[in-house]
Amino acid sequence: MASIRESLEVTTFKALYKKLVSTVQNSEQSTEGIISMVNAAEKVTGDLYSKEGWDGIRESLSDPNNRWLRIIRRAFRDVDEHILDRNLMNIVYYASIAGIRTKRKMIKKHHCNIPNIILFDPTTACNLHCKGCWSAEYGHKWNLSYEEMEDIVRQGEEMGCHLYFMTGGEPLVRKDDIIRLADKFPNSAFHIFTNATLIDDAFCAEVRRVGNITFAVSIEGFEDQNDARRGEGAYQHIVESMNLMKRNRIGFAASICYTSANYETVTSDTFLRQLVDLGCFHVWYFHYMPIGQGAVPELLLTADQRKYMIERIRYLRTNEADIDLMLADFQNDGQFVGGCIAGGRSYIHINAKGDLEPCVFIHYSNSNIRDKSILEGMKEPLMMAYYHEEPWNKNHFKPCPMLENPDLLPNIVKNSHAKSTDYIAEEMPEDLYKKTAPYAAQWSDTADELWEEYSKYGHGDPAKRSEMKEKMEEHQEGIREKMEASLNKTAQ
User: Fold this and answer.
1) Any residues with CB less than 8 A from the CB of 464 and at least 6 apart, and which?
2) Nearest to 123 by CA among 103, 139, 107
3) 164 in Cβ contact with 188 (< 8 Å)
4) Which of 80, 170, 171, 441 is the right S-S partner for 166, CB 3.0 to 4.6 Å?
């Protein structure tokens, strides 16, 4: 049962939200009303977040042409009202205010990490067989029961967690159970990483009804690059599914694994504009990780390629870029979140066998939800190593104990007596080290140079801004020419 404080806060935030809708719809060029609502939200949250953070929000929103305002306006125009209402309430209030309060109390009481987000795999089953995907080899062997998924969310909410991401396998193989789960927990948000092939009109209607489900559609680039990995016809199906969600007013994200082969394409103006046209609002970028037997270390980026990713995405976040997408780079945004966020510092992963893992990319564990509660698992040696040792590196362009600090993971696994949780074949951390150590060595000097600049200036040296814009525009011209040639070849 909600406390009196929570009930009052919920009422306040609903009123602020209604006022925000009215302000955006009736006065698109004025930001004064929105700034006043930011001020009111700051008062409600108290000391949960720093004044510097709120000042940054106010500064960003003071420009009527700010890209965040453009995205907000597009969302109010193009997304189903119930979906927008429910997700904003769950993410902004239940997850980021009430949930954070509970999390901090739990950390103080239990002296361990408590996650803001729980990722879990409903199943290993998938209707595709993508090259390089570790899920491709799992088959239909492992599943979490509906009761286990319900228990994960119940335990999570008790710890203050109201954000649940589902991976796999293909989570929508279990779409009836996902709808049932969203119905059961209306104050939590469920974000599904999917190949989108199982989305149809009937399912869209259910998603609009419950309101607290959103999607991240996996895509690798244009048709030739995407289908080379996901199979012939996959790209067209993705486009059809995106159009279907757009017609049903279901805002969605794109989930992109960037590699040495596609990093330019998936950050290009041409590609990103197409995502906007198809109804996308957000892009999750994930650095390729050479995990498992089918890993291809050649897909890891060179130092220059990764530097380009960092500079390109940060440029796309400026008002000088006119592509209205929210962008998150799982590896390179460590600067903004204090390094590695795994091990429960921000999130944990539960696989389809129930193993509690510190990260979706770190397949080692010494606890299982079928034997222990999630809280008990957070106190096991592997998770406690994250609690005591994060951040793994003071340079947050080197956040990961596997990829940029590869000597750490073998010791963490050994000292915690963790076991490999790979579904197909046990991968010893020493073998993983052999794949990541050369990458870490070639990245280190560039990472140090970038950290010296970005830790001082946040989003980069302002004096270099015009130079950066010119550099990006010139580079995009070259990419556009290559893309047009490739798209023409595909069309023929």
Assistant:
1) none
2) 139
3) yes
4) 171
